[in-house]
Amino acid sequence: MEGAVKKPIKVSIKDLATYPEVYIDSMPITNHLRQWRHTLLNVKCVSLKSILDKVIIDAPSPKDLSRYYLEFIASDNYTIVFSWNEVFNSPTGKHIFLLTEKDARKINEQSDRISMIVSTDFATGRRYLKGLKYIIIKKAD
Q1: Can you give the residue ranges of every domain in the chain?
Q2: Least buried of 4, 115, 122, 139, by fewest C-beta within 10 Å?
Q3: Contacts for 73-79 with beta carbons within 8 Å, 24 or more apart?
Q4: How does residue 12 score in pLDDT terms, banded at 50, 70 and 90?
Q5: Could you name the domain of life of the organism this protein comes from (predicted)?
């Protein structure tokens, strides 16, 4: 994580193994029309919030946090944006996960490496990001 933070942190695949895992039996992936595309089976994942809780945003006051947003950028430059409030001040934040295993394959055996998903989205494919490379925290103008 980099950007508007007091100290950037780097989380590797090896680091993810140190966080508590959540197990999800199956997760359907749907497109923007909510049409089924495929299903992820035997998903093990880490709550993104458990990682972000270690990040200190460089904000002058807590009141300013509502002006911050997080960009999640994949290796192919696909980008997903969340507001600070969406991650830290709503139920959505509790359902953003980094996948450590899916379809009985560990993260280091997968071509898309670190993937991110929001398990409570209606159209899950919209925020199913494969190959997460960076998380950048920025302040809106």
Answers
A1: 2-139
A2: 122
A3: 73/132, 73/133, 73/134, 73/135, 73/136, 74/129, 74/130, 74/131, 74/132, 74/133, 75/113, 75/131, 75/132, 75/133, 76/131, 78/129, 78/130
A4: confident
A5: Bacteria
* Token digits of residue 124: 């899950």
Residues found in the chain: 141
Tell me: domain 2-139, CATH 3.40.1190.20, correct? no
pLDDT in the model for residue 117: 95
Beta-carbon count within 10 A of 6 CB: 9
DSSP string, 9-22: ----HHHHTTSPEE
Query: Which pTM does this prediction carry?
Result: 0.91
